[in-house]
Design a protein that fits this description.
Two copies of one chain form a homodimer. By secondary structure, chain A is mostly helical. Chain A is built from 24 helices and no strands. The first copy, chain A, is globular, with a radius of gyration of 25 Å.
């Protein structure tokens, strides 16, 4: 205890004698977080060869450990910087992560799987929401919780249906398992819009007059939210492409270009939040449009800088979230205010966790079966092993769940003691589920994928032929081609199909057809206005960096 | 007024019906600032050809304009986001600016002028502090202010002696006027340490027992602060170089390298603040060490990314400060609480301004004369025109002044009405001085330099020969040379001296001699441990980017 006493004395001495004009507690909190971030990165780097661990889990454990130290130093009272702030999370930490995901996503793969992403993200989340709400209603009654109404149970359903897209990014590899990555991560992005709509709908719900119109209204709200959010993201992305192409920032400064891209992307998120749209959807599509048009309009240095700087910011933000969640879990005040027995806590947490498992299974298997029915080719269908991985990889719950749970249960103004205890219990149980799911699924997913889908990444070279279809052949003849298309679209889940006749290919492969017409439209109408690949305003014949000039930002993942 | 009513209605409607879980006022404030930042950058880009304007002044006026709109919308009450936050400024906005300045500074030029920088930064600031304090004591009494004691007057002296290093960065060009840039900007960095020591010393001063020991103690504190802050910055910089070289982050990820550099730099600032040192000095030297060692140990992509990403962040932060100061100036509550006549306000502001002018003149001319006496060669002396520019370019007062003034006069707990009015008057007068000096000196410095020192930048090619002295010749033979050294050290204030014999050159040019031994030390002891130029761990023969591999980050200024 001597060390903790010394640290305590040191901190309090600094608080009183500090001649700095800054508030010492803020400085200490920031220093602590930055130190822990550095430690997470270094440790994460050192144990990278270990397939059970990754930076998220390292950060989570470091957060838990340092939260423990802070508690010891403070003598069991939680300190100010252990408290989770929704504002910090939603305004500063989440946007760069989602933007970078859109910026670096393999667009072709994403849009190829768009139907399954929408299906999972919308109907899947809805099924999971209904099941979890009903299940919680019956299970929690049995455990002995009494104070919740229908509204609270619906909120629990919405909160536990929000999958964590951040951890997915770290656990699944875009290069090794592109189909799984785009399906599970894409689902996570759409899922966010759905759960926020559901959560907000529940908030404004009048339980008495719930009828079929409410459901219709909900659907209408979702469609409105989905399309306006997407449109806003695309609009801001196009604005940045047009602005940078027209104003020609590169003439004077790379920094201006990078600053404008960064600021406009962030602005799209903020405007979406201001208009009560889904900022996550908006900034995700803004990232996609920026990587398709804007990124090609800037100088070579700006391209390298944005590619890595956005990835770095996102990487820091991700690590920060896990640190934060880890530290937040040790907020003793909250644990004490539940005043439940350990038995009740465990019962609630495990029923929540069971509901999450069942709720996801209940839509992954049926929806993939429906998807498989629409596919004629055996190679296009989703195998059972793949279904299992989709189910497994989407089980993680993360910071969005914690933030929503706080919003619902933390600021309980009810004077009823039972009610406030049960509200606190909900928050601690949610944190337990988040911690447990992140650690278990985060550490086991990589080994599991290796076991269930052996040598997944090794086939990527032969798979690259898959897209040498009509579309690519035409593109090869019609324009000066794009050497990266083959690799970019290379998906690994199917053995390469035998070459077929042009017409048959066109009919069989609908997504290729859509893509072909999109490319024609893009080349004829969009690129002349907004730039994009092939638009080379700066020293066209420059030999250096020719490799980077043609590749898309998605080739450089973390 | 219809538009303002509409905006008001829009804002308040969003505040009430917002279904977002975020606080609407935060979202509005962030959106507004991001929009204004974008506008400043675009407008700054468009008017760049205009030599009277720059991004700082654009941002300042945009801030004033939008502050005005906010006031109109709020019906004359200040809104929450108009209030200057010292924490925001010192913790988040200032560090990246100073770090980038250190990272991109031309090291040779900086160390060559180190003696004059120290002289100006320490003795200059001290002279200015004494003169302004005494002047304020007599002038303010005459104007009719009664409530201040000696302590307040000394605080005013410290506050008004803090020059603004941020605006200097924007107004002076490192490439066109390297001597002026390194002298005035370097002075600004050292000045910060001095004014903070002075300010803190004044805070803890017991006026009754002020004697010669107090002065000695003050000097001791300054020396302690200067050396520990510098040592801390160097230590953290070396740690980053050693860590990145040893751990070999580049093997897996460019993002980790960039993240570690960013986080360690920030950590150095935070540790310095935690230990009540000068964070600005620390992060400045950390930046210098990082650009000398760490930057050469990372991958090619990391080099390009850090060079531009750090510059971009700094650029955004600089623009933000001016926006913020502009908006802050319109905090009506503060203006109202002065309850002084316009005459008194103008009298106080103009006496402050006059004291700033005199205080700076009182040390620039004497100190440069002393400096000139130590130089035997006519070409090494500082001409009168150059003295004038040094005086002029350091007259700007900026955000540090505002922050210190707030700290001193804003949280006045005195119940005396006259006293609290006069405290408020000090804050508004400081803001007036800052605004006026930034606009006047910021817009007039560039044209003035062109007029006073005609065709300054055009001689840089011939000046590059200046350093083809013994030292460089030896370096050329001893090692595989550094093609950038010549340009990097190329200073423009002197005509190229005739080539002399080796020994004579060695004696005449002391700073070159020091530099020569430093290089030998660096090559033999430092570089084997910490890497640095010539340490190429990644694909040594790679033809792409060979140009960037040899250049230092300082070649890419905004």
């Amino acid at each position: 205890m001597a060390v903790s006493e010394a640290i305590k004395a040191f901190i309090s001495s600094n608080r009183t004698v500090s001649t700095s004009i800054l508030d010492a507690s803020t400085v200490i909190a920031v220093s602590l977080f930055v130190t822990l971030l550095c430690a997470s990165i270094v440790i994460g780097h050192l144990i990278e060869e270990n397939r059970w661990a990754n930076e998220s889990i390292t950060a989570l454990f470091l957060g838990l450990a340092s939260g423990g130290v802070v508690l010891l130093v403070n003598g069991g009272r939680s300190s100010q910087f252990l408290v989770f702030s929704e504002e910090l999370f939603f305004i500063y930490v989440l946007p760069p992560i989602i933007f970078n995901a859109g910026f670096q996503v393999k667009k072709k793969q994403f849009f190829k799987n768009f139907s399954i992403i929408l299906m999972f993200g919308v109907f899947g989340t809805l099924i999971s929401f209904i099941l979890i709400s009903i299940g919680a209603y019956f299970l929690f009654k049995k455990i002995g919780l009494t104070s919740f109404g229908i509204k609270e149970y619906l909120a629990i359903g919405a909160i536990l249906s929000a999958t964590d897209s951040v951890c997915t990014l770290q656990v699944l590899s875009q290069d090794e398992t592109p189909f799984l990555y785009s399906a599970v991560f894409g689902e996570g992005v759409v899922n966010d819009a759905t759960s926020i709509v559901l959560y907000n709908a529940v908030q404004s719900l009048n339980v008495s007059d719930a009828d079929v119109f409410t459901a219709l209204k909900l659907l209408g709200t979702f469609l409105y939210l989905f399309f306006t959010s997407t449109a806003l993201g695309i609009a801001v992305g196009l604005l940045s492409a047009y602005g940078i192409k027209t104003l020609y920032f590169g003439r004077h400064s790379t920094d201006r270009e990078v600053a404008i891209m960064l600021l406009l992307a962030y602005l799209s998120y903020m405007i979406a939040e201001l208009l009560s749209l889904s900022g996550i959807l908006t900034i995700f599509f803004c990232g996609i449009v920026m990587s398709h048009y804007t990124w090609h309009n800037v100088t070579e240095s700006s391209r390298i800088t944005t590619k890595h700087a956005f990835a770095t910011i996102s990487f820091i933000a991700e690590t920060f979230i896990f640190l934060y969640v880890g530290m937040d879990a040790l907020d003793v005040d909250r644990w004490e205010s539940t005043s439940s027995s350990a038995g009740t806590s465990i019962a609630v947490s495990s029923s929540m966790f069971a509901l999450v498992l069942i709720g996801r299974a209940a839509f992954v298997y049926p929806l993939t079966s429906i998807y498989n029915c629409t596919k004629r080719r055996e190679s296009d269908k989703i195998t059972f092993r793949r279904q299992f991985i989709i189910w497994w990889a989407g089980l993680m719950r993360g910071a969005v769940t914690i933030a929503l749970s706080y919003n619902e249960f933390s600021s309980s103004s009810s004077s009823d003691e039972t009610s406030s205890h049960e509200h606190a219990l909900m928050v601690t149980s949610t944190i337990t589920v988040v911690l447990f799911s992140t650690v278990v699924f985060g550490s086991m997913t990589k080994p599991l994928i290796e076991k269930v889908l052996p040598r997944q990444g090794k086939t990527s070279i032969s798979d690259a032929d898959q897209f040498t279809s009509l579309e690519d052949l035409r593109l090869l003849f019609l324009e000066d081609g794009d050497p990266n298309n083959n690799n970019e679209g290379g998906s690994n889940q199917q053995p390469p199909p035998p070459k077929r006749s042009s017409l048959r290919l066109l009919i069989t492969n609908t997504s290729s057809t859509v893509h072909y017409f999109w490319r024609k439209f893009d080349d004829r109408f969009m690129r002349p206005v907004f730039g994009g690949r092939g638009f080379v305003p700066f020293v066209p014949g420059s030999p250096t960096g020719a490799q980077d000039q043609t590749s898309s930002p998605s080739t450089a993942q973390i």
